[in-house]
């Protein structure tokens, strides 16, 4: 949905255009592994390309431009071809990233082949669970006794989203089971800081010294999605604690407060994962103005240190101008940051009001994210709420806003609304009801 025009939307679009211009390979219909690419595509980075899919869908949701959806579809087909016609993978965490991206692609296309791919992946991922060390999903299929955050927190996100989309209680059971293991095993109970894994070297130890933005980001995302699925605010509180601790511990310099450099290769994606799910937390609770401003500040620093005015490419450090031979992973993170800044700027600028709710609702309807019989139902509830507020009849307005929310949660309407539209409208209505008081 593209309702507003502002500085960060423009910058996000420029970053997306530059990513495509400098990394897309028309012969393979995939992104190259690096810029500049000299025989750089020998390795197939399945999980990088999963994030590339996610990043293209970010652009589509911001612009409603079908070009981004077409590129997503083409990229999926090329990934499948490069992966010998199958969508599964040796690494459980990599399959989770592909599942999350394809579930979003299904949301916007309603094409059953993406739903089928997610189902295949999810079935495979669940085989990685065992009771060793109390539970948890393994990192890969040849080391089943090593469990880590990258293979468990994203599984909570996926299972929670599947439950919200399709209503299968088994998915919610999986989400809660995995979350409880993750929290009890790999999260510092005092600070909420997330550790990387257990038994990596076969000695049963926990890797407490591996402090990555990646791990904090996926646990934040797990808490947010379980909150959306259950409305249990304890999950949101967990996410907030981890976010606050992560922001303090994972900046490179306490003076500038910019996230630290985690290098290239796989590490190039870590900050992008963190900012994506930190942004999701702020969207769920737009009162978190400090977190929104933190993301804007990081985006400002990255933008000011881009490669050149005509080459909007970012480095692994968001505080220094990069050199060339930049891994795709690094620039995916930079583009994710720009996309989050575009969302954060709106949240910082726009007060929560009945007018904002109506603007969001009409925008989603125009983008076909809400359709069918749900359209007149929601329009009528929002209209009635606005009318009563204008007449200072707060009690009646709240009644219609509560009805509005009930329709959003109604499983009979789930095929008529996208997850993004549903979650955003629920969040806005929650804040409106909170402002209106008891």
Automatic annotation (TrEMBL):
SUPFAM superfamilies: Six-hairpin glycosidases. The keyword Hydrolase applies. Residues 356-434 form the FIMAH domain. Keywords: Hydrolase. Pfam families: FIMAH, Glyco_hydro_76. GO terms for molecular function: hydrolase activity. Gene3D superfamilies: 1.50.10.20. InterPro entries: 6-hairpin_glycosidase_sf (IPR008928), FIMAH_dom (IPR054470), Glyco_hydro_76 (IPR005198), MUG_Protein (IPR053169). It comes from the Bacteria. One of its GO terms (biological process) is carbohydrate metabolic process. The keyword Hydrolase applies. This is Glycoside hydrolase family 88 protein. It comes from Lederbergia citri.
């Amino acid at each position: 949905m593209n309702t507003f025009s502002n500085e960060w939307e423009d910058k996000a679009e420029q970053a997306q255009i530059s990513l495509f211009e400098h990394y897309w390979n028309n012969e393979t219909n995939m992104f190259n592994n690096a810029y500049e690419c000299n025989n750089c595509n020998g390795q197939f980075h399945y999980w990088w390309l999963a994030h590339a899919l996610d990043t293209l869908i970010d652009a589509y949701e911001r612009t409603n431009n079908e070009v981004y959806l077409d590129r997503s579809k083409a990229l999926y087909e090329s990934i499948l071809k490069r992966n010998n016609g199958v969508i599964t993978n040796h690494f459980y965490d990599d399959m989770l990233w592909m599942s999350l991206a394809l579930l979003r692609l299904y949301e916007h296309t309603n094409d059953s082949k993406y739903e089928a791919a997610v189902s295949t992946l999810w079935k495979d991922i669940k085989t990685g669970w065992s009771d060793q060390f109390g539970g948890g999903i393994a990192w890969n299929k040849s080391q089943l006794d090593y469990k880590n955050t990258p293979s468990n927190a994203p599984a909570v996100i996926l299972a929670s989203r599947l439950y919200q989309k399709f209503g299968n209680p088994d998915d919610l059971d999986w989400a809660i089971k995995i979350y409880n293991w993750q929290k009890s095993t790999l999260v510092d109970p005092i600070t909420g800081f997330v550790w990387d894994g257990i038994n990596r070297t076969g000695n049963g130890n926990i890797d407490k010294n591996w402090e990555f933005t990646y791990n904090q980001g996926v646990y934040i995302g797990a808490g947010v999605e379980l909150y959306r699925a259950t409305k249990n605010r304890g999950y949101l509180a967990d996410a907030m604690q981890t976010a606050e601790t992560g922001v303090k511990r994972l900046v490179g310099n306490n003076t500038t407060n910019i996230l630290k450099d985690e290098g290239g290769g796989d590490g190039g994606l870590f900050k992008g994962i963190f900012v994506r799910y930190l942004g999701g937390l702020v969207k769920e609770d737009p009162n978190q103005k400090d977190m929104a401003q933190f993301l804007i500040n990081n985006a400002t620093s990255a933008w000011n240190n881009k490669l050149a005015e005509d080459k909007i490419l970012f480095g692994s450090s968001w505080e220094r101008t990069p050199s060339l031979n930049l891994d795709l992973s690094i620039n995916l993170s930079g583009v994710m940051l720009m996309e989050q800044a575009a969302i954060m700027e709106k949240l910082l600028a726009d007060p929560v009001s009945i007018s904002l709710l109506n603007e969001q609702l009409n925008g989603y309807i125009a983008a076909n994210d809400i359709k069918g019989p749900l359209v007149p139902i929601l329009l009528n509830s929002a209209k009635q709420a606005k009318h009563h507020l204008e007449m200072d009849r707060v009690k009646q307005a709240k009644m219609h806003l509560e009805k509005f929310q009930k329709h959003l949660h109604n499983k009979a309407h789930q095929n008529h609304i996208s997850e993004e539209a549903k979650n955003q409208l629920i969040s806005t209505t929650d804040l409106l009801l909170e402002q209106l008081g008891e």
